[in-house]
Specification:
Order of helices and strands: H
Structural class: mainly alpha
Radius of gyration: 33 Å
Mean pLDDT: 76
Largest sheet: none
Number of helices: 1
Helix content: over 70%
Number of strands: 0
Distance between the termini: 112 Å
Length: 77
């Protein structure tokens, strides 16, 4: 009789830990998917900003060159 009670309690404990394991596995998978989504969103933003800055850099240098040219022309007249 004692052995049957121990077996039943061991089985329920195993089943309970199995449930916890499945629950934790689901939560881990869900959290990992959310993290991967945020990481991909961050990478997309980073790529867009790099492209934007690479396009702006020649414009800024040309703008400063034109401004210095115009200031020299203004001084010479």
């Amino acid at each position: 009789m004692l052995t049957i009670k121990m077996l039943c309690s061991a089985r329920s404990t195993t089943k309970g830990s199995l449930m916890k394991s499945e629950k934790h596995e689901f939560l881990y998978t869900y959290a990992r998917a959310a993290f991967d989504d945020e990481l991909q969103r961050f990478r997309n933003i980073e790529d867009k900003s790099a492209r934007y800055l690479s396009l702006r850099r020649p414009g800024v240098s040309q703008g400063s060159w034109i401004a210095s040219f115009l200031s020299e022309v203004g001084e010479s007249t």
